[in-house]
Each structure stands twice: as C-alpha cells, then as structure tokens.
Amino acid sequence: MKMEKRKHIKSQGGGLGRMINSVQTVFVGMLRIWSIPIVLLLSIASGFTTFYGLSHFILPWIALIITVAIQSIIVICSLEIAGIHWKANRFRYLTIMISLLIALAASISFSYFKFYEISEQDTIHIRRLSQVQQDVNGYLREITEVKNSSLEKHRKALEQASKEVSQAFFGTHPEVLPRYKHVVGKGPFWRRYNELYQKKQEENKLREEEFAKLDNKILTLQGNLSQLDVVQDKEDVYQKTLANLQEVQVHFNRLTASEGNRLPVVPVLMSYKQFIQSVKPNFSMWVGFSTFAFVCAAMVDFFTVLLSYRLEFTAPGPLTEQEESLVFECLRQFTEFRINENDELEMVIEKTELERARHYSDWSRMFAVGLLLSRGFLRKIDDRRVEFAPNLYPLIAESMGEKLERLKAQAASEAVIAEVSHDQG
Hints:
By secondary structure, the protein is mainly alpha-helical. The chain has three domains: 2-118 and 289-311, no CATH class; 126-276; 321-420, Arc Repressor Mutant, subunit A. It contains eleven helices and four strands. It has helices at 2-54, 60-83, 90-170, 188-227, 234-256, 272-276, 291-311, 321-331, 353-357, 363-375, 393-424; strands at residues 337-339, 345-348, 378-380, 385-388. Strands 1-2-4-3 form a four-stranded antiparallel sheet. α1 runs antiparallel to α2 (60-83), α1 (2-54) packs across α3 (90-170) and α3 (90-170) packs antiparallel against α7 (291-311). The radius of gyration is 46 Å and the shape is rod-shaped.
C-alpha cells in the first residue's frame, strides 16, 4: 500500500514538473515566434522614415529600392552575426559588421530627417515667427529713429524761425538795415519773417499729423504681429501684416524722402506658404543638431538589430528522421566536449592524436558537422571547435530520451525473461 502511494506521489510530481516544463517551453517558443513580427514591424517603421528622408534627395522608386536593401541588410547581418564567432572567420565577420554599420549609418541618417521634422516642427514655426517679428520690429526701430530725428530737426528750425520773428520785431535781427536797427514794430521786414514762420509752423503741424497717421499704421502692424500665433486664421493676419508693412514703408518714404535722409532697408518677409511650410529634409538639419531626433532614429534601428540578434539564425527547415538519426550517431563519435564561456556545449571537431595514428576516416561525422553548420544547428568558434545552437538541444534530448526508453524497455523484457526462466527452473 505504501509502495503504491509513493508511486502515486511520484507520478503526480513528475506530471506537475512535466506540465511546468511544457508551459515554459511553449512560452519561450511563443516569445521567439512573436519576435519575428516585431522585427518585421520595426524594420517597416525604420524603412518608412528612411524612405521619407531619402525620397527628398532622389527619385521615390529608387529610394524605395534602396530602403528595402538597407533594411534587409540590417536584419540579415544581425542574424548572421548572432550565428558566427570572430575567431571562426575574421574576414567574414568584419565584412558583415562593416555592412551592418554602413546600413545603420544610412538608415539612421535619413530617418533623422523625419524625426527632426516631428520633434522640431513647433520650434521651427516659433523660429520663423520670431524671425518675422525681429525683421519687422528692426525696421520699425530704424523708422522711429529717422522720424524722431526729422521731427527734432524741424522743431529746431521752427524755434529758429520764431526767434528770427522776435528779432525782426525788435529790430535786432542780424540782417536788418542799419536805419531800422532797434526800431520796434511790425514793418515789412517783420512781415516777411512772420510769413516764413507761419509757413513753417503750418508745415510742421501737417508733418506731425502725417507722422501721427504713420504711428497708427505702426500700431496696427504691431498688433498684427502679436496676433500671428494667437488667431486661428493665420493666413488673413499674415496677409494683413504684409500689406500694413508696405503701407508703412510707402507712407514713411513719402514723408522723409525729400529730406535726403538714408531710408531704412525694408525687410523681405517670407510668403505665407513659406511661413507655414513643413520642414523639408536638407543637410542644414545637421547644423542645428537635434539630439532627441537622432536618439529616436537610432533607437528604432537599435531595437531591430537587438531583436534580430537575439532571435538568432534558425534552420531554414527541420531535419528529417533519417538526418536526425545520422546526426545523433555521428556526434556520438566525438570525444572532447566542454561548456564554454557562452554557456553552450562545445566540442572539438578535429581528429585526436590516436585517430591520426590509426588513419581514422572521420568523413561521416564531418559530414554531419557540415550539415548542422549549414542548417544553423551548430556555430563555428574557430578552425577546430564548434558549439551547439539552442535549437539543437531539443533534437538531441529527444533522441537521447527515445534511446533511454528503448534501453528501459529492453531491461524490463530481459528481467521478465529471467524471472520466467527462474520459475521454470
């Protein structure tokens, strides 16, 4: 009774452990399978941004072909690097690594343009708005300086005219005739200077009125500038800004051109289409380098390489039953095995000294090694060593399990035969 209970408990424990192992195996397998669409989606995302940037420099259909080639090189080289070692074939490893780095540089460089547009769009709009405001306000400052200088000059001229009228009235004007010196009164001399004074006073009044109108136009222009980033209908406000700037220019030039002053240079503002135009990829984007855009562009390709590397290059097709039997039997002929620094089972594939002395033919087992290398079940470390790929362990475990079951069955049958023979004896 106790024996049966112990067997029952052992059976339950074995069943639970087997179930946990099965769940873990399925979960790991699902993760490996799920990595494939993730790699493809990341490659498509990176390809879209690469194509976007590349298509601004060359024809779209050529950009598409180059983009497909770039993304294919990234995935393929990442998979191949996971399946080879530096010591196994240095030249191949270097060529694959260089190809991967070139493809990554091209992908990141042209993807950078798209992420730059996304991340810097608001910044560029603010920069354009600030540029328009700076150009217009700079022009208005120059106008104000010239206007104040003109008003000050005419104010002094009016004061001088008023002073000359007073001198003419009291007969102290430098140009008065000697017989009219110190003669007080409104004579012909006074009337002449008084007419000049009245004329200058009227001109100065008209000039101040015109400058007041100019000030109103400047206020309207400044109001339009302040509304550019506030109102919804930016086009209407921007067009009004251009029109008001032109009105200010014409009005100011008409007032000051006759005085011989140097007229300020009117800024040439961008059109509304240029003002709202989206960012077009160009190499000047590297001058105003955006760390965030570069990190985003590199991050997509980094994850593509990382997942492709972790996915590892699996066999293009499963081994048949005959190939599995052949491989298992041939691998058993090797004698030097160890666990290497990658935590993988490593074996030496060259002949031992004893085998060389006996002129042993290792063609069959080397054929098995070549088959497994070509299928991705083995990975070459150097000229004399190879290591097991993760997808080879289940096949060997299955073969060993089947052989163990056969040995158990054979032992059980031999025990039954021995027991029957003993009873008959």
